[in-house]
Specification:
By secondary structure, the protein is α/β, with parallel strands linked by helices. It is built from twelve helices and 21 strands. Strand 18 and strand 19 form a beta hairpin.
């Protein structure tokens, strides 16, 4: 689902190409750093580049460990807990593969307390939701097509949404985006009622008739005020040239006004999350049913599904491997947060009052069983969209080393973006000879840049590598992290690079 899930992460802005090329070109220009232990040439080079770019060698931490060939482990500030950004998703997804299993699925159940009489369902329709991060328009359309296939065209009762799958008495952690768009897709919160990522996709197209605006799904509560002017055919403008302003009314409707200028033959789009999840899901179901020619006489409400209801149909999600791929390729925040809640709900103990906290407890205990040192590790919400999350580079490398040995290593690795080819790495390290030679999860927050994953060098050795930049500002952190990957590829630290046997002090700086 790249076209949708790409909107559920916070994208970084482009970096000056000259800086990236300068950092990548300076692989052999490193000098010794004063007031610290003697470094290997590789680490010395990385620290020197960090000091030049950030004026501080503490701004970046790195751990790089060879997995299947010659190489010397490298650690730079590796025990310092740092804000990870979205590389935290690797902890959640790898944990889910082993804790829930790769074939785990979510099930949405449709049942009734009424009777089928002719073409009418006389009774309430209950939708028992499971927190399925994949539940969307297509699956709802398929489910209700099945109901229509039973000969039902009228539901003479209420639509009841059951979201009791999660226990969240403490609510969810808030994330301060420091931005001006509370409706951005990457900020969507997890919910048992989540469908279609809680997003409305707005589009405007210009043609010989002028401009036409529409939304998907087409919900009655959302009204578009189209004030886009059509121009003669020309170059299509970027989405930054359009202003989308939602106005919320007392009756529950929302008017979205869009302004700008659009040449004929062009279109512009916007994704917004504007409605509470229960309201959105109910409105989406009502829209799907109405578009099939169905009638629903009652209102919608939330409530618990009675034990004596009769099952009409179910809708199963894709397997967990598919979910993990969607999360990691395009850094989908809300799916990762849903996944942590699922881990908690499936492993809830009598002493657990909150499924988020239960999920964190389960993941940390599972990591400890893998030999990972979890001291100082803060998971918070499972996505990395957090100011509180913390992980050290050494902890990240330990997790990747454990994943390398996992029965589900292939499933995790195939979910990660390929260098210079797809996902959040598709534009990085192009024209370096590294295309497809690494699978790297990226992270981006204000003053945070990060990478974690597996990459190969010119000796065909695979390295587990974690790099974190925490610095204000961190705009050039991406170029530094690309240097880490490129230098591991081109000049990997190996035994033959030293005249003396290395010691821990010679390969580590803190």
């Amino acid at each position: 689902m790249p076209s949708t899930t790409a909107f559920l992460r916070k994208s970084g802005r482009g970096r000056p190409l000259s800086l990236a090329l300068t950092l990548l070109a300076g692989l052999s220009a490193g000098t010794a750093v004063a007031d610290g232990p003697r470094l290997s040439p590789w680490s010395e080079n990385i620290v020197d580049a960090t000091v030049r770019a950030m004026d501080s060698k503490q701004a970046m931490s790195v751990a790089a460990v060879p997995l299947n060939g010659p190489g010397l482990p490298q650690y730079i500030n590796a025990d310092e807990p740092m804000s990870p950004g979205s590389i935290m998703k690797l902890v959640t997804t790898y944990g889910a593969l082993e804790i829930l299993g790769p074939t785990y699925r979510w099930e949405t159940r449709f049942s009734t307390d009424g009777q089928l009489v002719g073409h009418t369902l006389q009774g309430n329709l209950y939708v028992t939701l499971s927190g399925d991060p994949h539940l969307g328009m297509e699956r709802l359309w398929t489910a209700f097509s099945e109901l229509r296939g039973m000969g039902i065209d009228t539901i003479d009762g209420d639509l009841v949404l059951d979201g009791t799958v999660f226990n969240l008495p403490n609510g969810l952690p808030e994330f301060d985006d420091n931005g001006d768009n509370d409706y951005a897709p990457f900020l969507v919160k997890p919910s048992p009622y989540l469908t279609n990522f809680n997003l409305t996709h707005f589009q405007v197209r210009a043609d010989e008739r002028g401009t036409t605006a529409w939304a998907t799904p087409a919900l009655n509560a959302i009204i578009i005020d189209n004030d886009v002017t059509a121009l003669p055919a020309g170059r299509c403008p970027s989405h930054h040239h359009f202003d989308w302003t939602p106005t919320f009314h007392d009756d529950g409707t929302i008017t979205v006004r869009v302004t700008g200028k659009l040449p004929e033959g062009c279109r512009t789009t916007k994704y917004y999350s504007l409605m509470p999840a229960p309201d959105y899901t109910a409105a989406t179901i009502q829209t799907v049913w109405a578009r099939m020619g169905g009638l629903m006489t009652g209102r919608w409400r939330t409530g618990e599904t009675p034990d004596d209801t009769r099952l009409l149909m179910t809708s199963d999600s894709p397997d967990l491997v598919t979910t993990v791929r969607d999360i990691n390729k395009w850094s989908n925040n809300v799916m990762a947060r849903q996944l942590l809640l699922a881990i908690g709900a499936e492993n809830r103990l009598p002493t657990d009052a909150d499924d988020r906290e239960a999920g964190i407890r389960k993941v940390k205990s599972w990591l400890a069983s893998k030999g990972v040192d979890t001291e100082g590790l803060v998971i918070d919400n499972g996505s990395g969209l957090s100011r509180a999350s913390r992980i050290s580079a050494r902890q990240g490398a330990q997790i990747l080393q454990a994943a390398w040995k996992s029965p589900y290593a292939a499933d995790l690795m195939s979910s990660m973006p390929l260098i210079a080819m797809d996902g959040t790495m598709h534009r990085r390290l192009r024209n370096t000879g590294m295309a497809g030679l690494g699978r790297i999860k990226t992270g981006y927050l204000e003053n945070v840049r990060s990478i974690a994953g597996f990459t190969r060098d010119t000796n065909d050795t695979t390295w587990a590598v974690v790099g974190l930049v925490n610095h204000a500002p961190a705009w050039n952190g991406q170029a530094l992290l690309d240097k880490v990957l490129y230098s591991l590829y081109l000049q990997p630290p190996v035994e033959t690079a030293f005249s003396k046997a290395p010691t821990k002090a010679s390969t580590e700086v803190r």
